[in-house]
Amino acid sequence: MISLFDTHTHLDASQFDSDRTEVIERARAAGVDLMINIGFNRETIPTTMELAEKYDFIYAAIGWHPVDSVFMEPGDLEWIEQLCSHPKVVAIGEIGLDYHWDTSPKEVQHRVFREQIRLARKLGKPIVIHNRDAHEDIVRILREEKASEVGGVMHCYSGSWETAKLCLDMNFYISFGGPVTFKNARVPKEVLAKVPLDRLLIETDSPYLAPHPFRGKRNESSYVSLVADTVAEITGKSKEEIAVITSTNGKKCFGIV
Fold first, then answer.
1. Which among 253, 239, 243 has a CA at the least distance from the CA of 173?
2. CA distances (Å), 5 to each of 13, 57, 224, in order?
3. Is omega for the bond preceding 179 within 30 degrees of 0, making it cis?
4. What is the mean pLDDT of the chain?
5. What is the rounded average pLDDT of the residues 187-214?
6. CA distance linking residue 156 with residue 158, whole number of Å
7. Please, where are the H alpha helices in 41-129?
8. pLDDT at residue 226 above 90?
9. Distance linking the first and last C-alpha atoms of the chain
10. Rounded alpha-carbon distances, angstroms, from residue 221 to 16, 111, 135, 161, 256
């Protein structure tokens, strides 16, 4: 049985309220031996911590999502810092910029993003980056805040190879999810083919962005196996090799022994 690492999932999402245990069991049956659950606001950080404490194979990344940055209050950053002392918290994220959803002003997003990069550097934690339609500002702020000191993950990467190279130079891994399996995903496939194998990760972002042939339906962590199939096809490696490569990379990135 291959061993897969879903480096980005939201198992605490309401979409799983009726069958969460079964979803986790299906992932395990599909060979998913490690998962990073993402807590990204006041509601999901506690539920992410609960999952990480309940299951030994689920780890936590916690942070403040850019879409929710306008709701971040004084004391929330300190709360995140306190929780980062928990041994199952392996990263700060997902953090970053989102210029698609008009919920948080750009200046607020920038401030919250910078504050969390600084916290990550203080604690020596990698960061998980959410980037939607904000490539130039993401790279600029990562540079200005010396994010290369901790590195991390460009989650569900959708940018160009030129931007990917800049992120690789700053000590980041490039992670691919369901969209890379889509038949019309020309650019993501081209970028994937160029990413060094030792900087490659896979994920689901479940319950969102389900891979082909489940596009448009609820995603779940077991489907990371389908992402691995596409990665193997594009890189010319076997699925077993991709499982080993991406699991090894994920453990290294998140400091999981």
1. 253
2. 19, 10, 8
3. no
4. 97
5. 98
6. 6
7. 44-54, 76-83, 106-123
8. yes
9. 20
10. 11, 32, 27, 27, 19
**C-alpha 81 chain-centroid distance:** 19
Cα 93–14–83 angle (5° rounding)? 35
Where does residue 93 rank: exposed (0-12), middle (13-18), buried (19+ CB within 10 A)?
buried
Q: Residue 130 — φ and ψ, nearest 5°?
A: -100, 125
Q: Which long-range contacts (CB under 8 A, 24 or more apart) does 179-182 make?
A: 179/209, 179/211, 180/211, 180/227, 180/230, 180/231, 180/234, 181/211, 181/212, 181/226, 181/227, 181/229, 181/230, 182/211, 182/212, 182/215
For residue range 122-136, what is the model confidence (pLDDT) as tens digits? 999 999 999 999 999
- Cross-strand pairs, 62: 39, 92
The span from the CA of 235 to the CA of 143, in Å, is: 29
Count of residues for the chain?
A: 257
Strand order in the sheet with 4-9: 4-9, 32-39, 58-62, 89-98, 127-132, 152-154, 172-176, 200-202
Amino acid (one-letter) located at 187: V
The interaxial angle of helices 106-123 and 135-144, nearest 10 deg, is: 40
Query: Which alpha helices (DSSP H) does 55-208 contain, by range?
Result: 76-83, 106-123, 135-144, 161-169, 186-194
Per-residue pLDDT at 102 exceeds 90: no
Helix axes 135-144, 161-169, angle to 10 degrees: 10
- Dist. CA 119–CA 138, nearest whole Å: 17
Tokens matching residue 32: 């998913």
The candidate with the shortest Cα–Cα distance to 96, out of 14, 35, 152, 30, is 152
257 CB-contact burial (10 Å; exposed 0-12 / middle 13-18 / buried 19+):
exposed
d(CA 233, CA 150): 31
